[in-house]
Design brief:
This protein is of the alpha/beta class. The protein has two domains: 213 residues, Rossmann fold (3-Layer(aba) Sandwich), CATH 3.40.50; 65 residues, Lrp/AsnC effector binding domain/regulation of amino acid metabolism (RAM) domain (Alpha-Beta Plaits). It is built from eleven helices and 14 strands. It has a six-stranded mixed beta sheet with strand order 6-7-8-3-9-10, with helices on both faces. Helix 5 runs parallel beside helix 6. The longest helix has 16 residues. The protein is elongated, with a radius of gyration of 23 Å. The protein binds adenosine-5'-triphosphate and magnesium ion. The site of adenosine-5'-triphosphate has 12 residues, from strand 2 and helix 1.
C-alpha cells in the first residue's frame, strides 16, 4: 500500500480491505475508506455493526486479520507506538480513576505520555471542556456529561492530531449532548481530526462532516449527510399509527418501503398525495380513526432504512 506522506495529502487515515473476525463472527468485513484532515468523521450503525472494532484497530489494538491501515502516514502494525503519541483516545467514562480528582487525573495522564503539564496547560485543557470549576472534584461527583467531558480532556492531553471518540454522547441528555458537540466542533475548528461512532441519527446528521454507514461489519455508504439524504431526493416519509393497515399498505404501488417499528408504520413514497388518499380510504374502510399521520422529508434514518432494509434500532 502506498502510504501518503504527511503534508502532501489531506488523508490522515487510510484503510484498505480491513477485515477482523472473532471466531465465527465477522466483526469487520472488507472495509475501505479514508479520513481527511480536519473533518468530523462518524461511523453510524446499530449494535454489533463493527464500529468499536474498527475504531480499536485504528487505535492500534487489536490487530486486524487482513487489510492495511495507515494513520498519519504510519503503518498501524509496525509503527504503532509512533501513532499512539499522536492520537487521542477517549476512554469510557467508567474508566475514570475514582480516587483522583479531576486535576489529578489530568496530571496523571500527562505523565503517562511522558509530559509534566503545567498548571496553566491543565487549566486551559479543563476550560476547553468546561470543567474549570471542578478541579478538586472526584469523578463520582460529576454528572454523566461532565464525566464524558473529563474523558475527552484526558484524550487531549498529548495534543493529538486525531481524536477517537467511541459513542461520546451515549446516555447523555440532549443539553449535555449539545455541549459536547460544541466542544467537538471547536476541536475540529482548531484543525484536529475527529473520528467518532454513534447510534444517534441526529448526531451523525448535524455533527459529522462525513458519515460512514456500517452494518454487519460492512460499509454500506460513505458521504456527507446532505449527499446521503439527497440519494432519496423525491422520496418522502410518512409515519402513521395505523399498524393494522400494514398488509394493505404494503401492496400499494406508490409505496417503496414499509417498516413496522413498534406501534408505528414508517412508509417511503414518491407520491405523497396518492399514498395519503389511499391510507385515508383504507382507514375508512376498516373503520379506523387515524390518530397520527406525519409527512416529512427524508433524513438519515430513512437513508439507513433504505440501504440496510432495517431501522437502526430494529
Ligand atoms: N473481543 C471480542 N470477542 C468476541 N467477539 C467480539 C469482540 N468484540 C466484538 N465482538 C463481536 O464483533 C461484532 C462487532 O462488535 P463491535 O463491538 O465492533 O460493534 P459496535 O458496532 O461497536 O456495537 P455497539 O454499538 O453495540 O457498541 C459483534 O458481533 C460483537 O459481538
Ligand atoms: Mg461499540
Amino acid at each position: 500500500m502506498t502510504v501518503p506522506k504527511n503534508g502532501t495529502s489531506n488523508v490522515v487515515i487510510q484503510v484498505k480491505n480491513l477485515t477482523k473476525a472473532y471466531g465465527e463472527v465477522t466483526a469487520v468485513n472488507d472495509l475501505s475508506f479514508n479520513v481527511h484532515k480536519g473533518e468530523i468523521f462518524g461511523f453510524l450503525g446499530p449494535n454489533g455493526a463493527g464500529k468499536t472494532t474498527t475504531l480499536s484497530i485504528l487505535e492500534g489494538l487489536p490487530k486486524a486479520d487482513g487489510g492495511q491501515v495507515a494513520v498519519l502516514g504510519l503503518d498501524i502494525n509496525s509503527q504503532t507506538q509512533a501513532i499512539k503519541q499522536r492520537i487521542g483516545v477517549q476512554l469510557q467514562s467508567t474508566s475514570l480513576l475514582p480516587d483522583l480528582t479531576v486535576l489529578e487525573q489530568v496530571q496523571l495522564f500527562g505523565r503517562l505520555y511522558g509530559r509534566q503539564p503545567t498548571k496553566q496547560e491543565m487549566m486551559q485543557l479543563l476550560e476547553r471542556v468546561g470543567l474549570v470549576g471542578k478541579t478538586a472534584v472526584f469523578p463520582e461527583k460529576l454528572s454523566g456529561g461532565q464525566q464524558q467531558r473529563l474523558a475527552l480532556a484526558l484524550a487531549l492531553i498529548n495534543q493529538p492530531e486525531i481524536i477517537f471518540l467511541d459513542e461520546p454522547t451515549t446516555g447523555l441528555d440532549p443539553q449535555s449532548r449539545h455541549v459536547l458537540w460544541d466542544i467537538i466542533r471547536g476541536l475540529r475548528d482548531q484543525g484536529k481530526t475527529i473520528v467518532l461512532t454513534t447510534h444517534y441519527m441526529e448526531e451523525a446528521e448535524t455533527l459529522c462532516d462525513r458519515v460512514g454507514i456500517i452494518d454487519h461489519g460492512t460499509l454500506v455508504a460513505l458521504d456527507t449527510p446532505g449527499a446521503l439524504i439527497n440519494r432519496l431526493a423525491g422520496v418522502s416519509s410518512i409515519t402513521t399509527s395505523a399498524t393494522m393497515l400494514l398488509d394493505s399498505i404494503q401492496a400499494l404501488p406508490s409505496i417503496s418501503r414499509v417498516q413496522r417499528n413498534g406501534t408505528w408504520l414508517h412508509l417511503q413514497t414518491n407520491d405523497v398525495p396518492t399514498t395519503l388518499r389511499t391510507i385515508l380510504d383504507l382507514a375508512e374502510q376498516h373503520e379506523l380513526s387515524l390518530h397520527d399521520l406525519h409527512i416529512k422529508q427524508p433524513n438519515l434514518e430513512d437513508v439507513f432504512l433504505n440501504l440496510t432494509g432495517h431501522a437502526i434500532r430494529a
